[in-house]
Amino acid sequence: MSAVVETARSAQPAEPGQDRVTDPRRRRRRLVTVGAGLCALALFVLTLGVGSTYVAPWDVLASVLHLRDIPLVDFVVRELRLPAAVTGLAVGFALGLSGPLFQRMLANPLAAPDVVGISSGAGLFAAGAMIVFHASGLFVSGAALVGAALSTALVYLLAWRDGIQGFRFILIGIGIAAFMESLIGYILARATIWDARAAMTWLIGSVGQAGPTELRTLVVVLLVVTPFALLLDRQLGALELGDDAATALGNRVEPSRLAIVLVVVVLVGCATAAAGPIGFVALMAGPIVARLSGSSGSLLASGFVGSGIVLGADLVALHVMPKPVATGVVTGVVGAVFLLWLLIGVNREGRGG
Question: Keyword annotations for this protein (predicted)?
Fold first, then answer.
């Protein structure tokens, strides 16, 4: 009940003279956001420093910030490790930001983009581009973005019945995701062994496969879309209360939902284009922040948690596993356990629909 009241307050205009600083919930949310940002930064520095050649954290920072010139350190940090580290940071932030947008819009923690078919659509079109047209680089990235948009539009249209309801949207999304996965399996079965191997490598998802163009595109998209996503926080607070309450508070429900869906498609499509469909990051970030914050949490904190998940998974994949594996293997194993825990929690609380 207290969470609902807090959500209603966040959806309403601030009262004159209201002392936001002394609100313990807001202080806790800010503390979680700052802590998540510092953890992501620490993992970013660790990613740049750990490997066959160890570089101390202060040397990493000095090299990245161009504070001094040490040729060997600069080569290892800037040339060899920085692209993958920035990719992990950016991809994780995009996925972490997109997850709670959908989960709060549909008022269900299971409504992550990779559960309702958006990532599967991107994977299908990218795999098709690689196998059927022997494409690479930007063409594959563009195909992934188109696939994410088309699969989302398909789910949205099929779920529409005088508006969108969360449970129906999730069920149809799961069905579309299964359909897309079956088509991916069919395409792989018809491909040559070399094409199938290349497509499978991409479909597992790894931060090490992003090219400079895909990475620059993702960073620019984040710089443009993130402020717009943060502006949607108030609409999300209203939508969590239900359509009638949101309308009574002066919100236009369907235009708000459409704006949120467009933001999620761009974030997930560009992140998938850069690193492949790294699974469960979008699903985990929002609930982790909500548990730490004691409320729905902030979108910015979810983005930082997503960055931390991807960077941490990449460190485990490269330096903890007996043999190096793709980043998506680690997030897949951890995410499957997290999904089971989430399903049990949702079932106990009766929020599964």
Answer: Cell membrane, Membrane, Transmembrane, Transmembrane helix, Transport
**pLDDT > 50? residue 55:** yes
Assign 135 to helix, strand or coil: coil
DSSP letter, residue 163: S
- CB crowding 168-199: b at 16 or more within 10 Å, else e: bbbbbbbebbebbeebbeebbeebeeebbebb
58 class by beta-carbon count within 10 Å (0-12 exposed, 13-18 middle, 19+ buried): exposed
CA–CA separation, 174 and 114 (whole Å): 9
pTM of the model: 0.87
> Under a CB-based contact definition with an 8 Å cutoff, are residues 51 and 76 in contact?
yes
What stretches of the chain show up as alpha helix (H) in DSSP?
A: 2-11, 24-49, 57-64, 71-74, 82-105, 118-132, 138-159, 166-190, 193-204, 212-231, 233-239, 243-248, 253-275, 281-293, 299-319, 327-349
Q: Which of 92, 35, 16 is nearest to 282 (CA)?
A: 92
User: 104 and 241 in contact (C-beta within 8 Å)?
Assistant: no
Amino acid identity of residue 48, one-letter, is L
Secondary structure letter of residue 280 according to DSSP: T
Q: Which residue has the tokens 């920072």?
A: 61
Q: How many Å apart are CA 98 and CA 15, to the nearest integer?
A: 30
CB neighbour list of residue 260: distance below 8 Å, 6 or more residues apart: 101, 102, 105, 232, 235, 236
The answer to whether the CB of 63 falls within 8 A of the CB of 73 is yes
Structure tokens at 61: 């920072």
What average pLDDT does the chain have? 84
Tokens of 120: 């599967």
- Residue for token pair 């088309």: 150
The string of pLDDT tens digits covering residues 205-233 is 888 777 788 788 889 989 999 999 988 88
Residue 26: partners with Cβ closer than 8 Å, 6 or more residues away = 20
Give the type of residue at 31: L
Q: Is 107 helix (H, G, I), strand (E, B) or coil?
A: coil
CA distance 104 to 114: 15
Question: 121 near 83, Cβ under 8 Å?
Answer: no
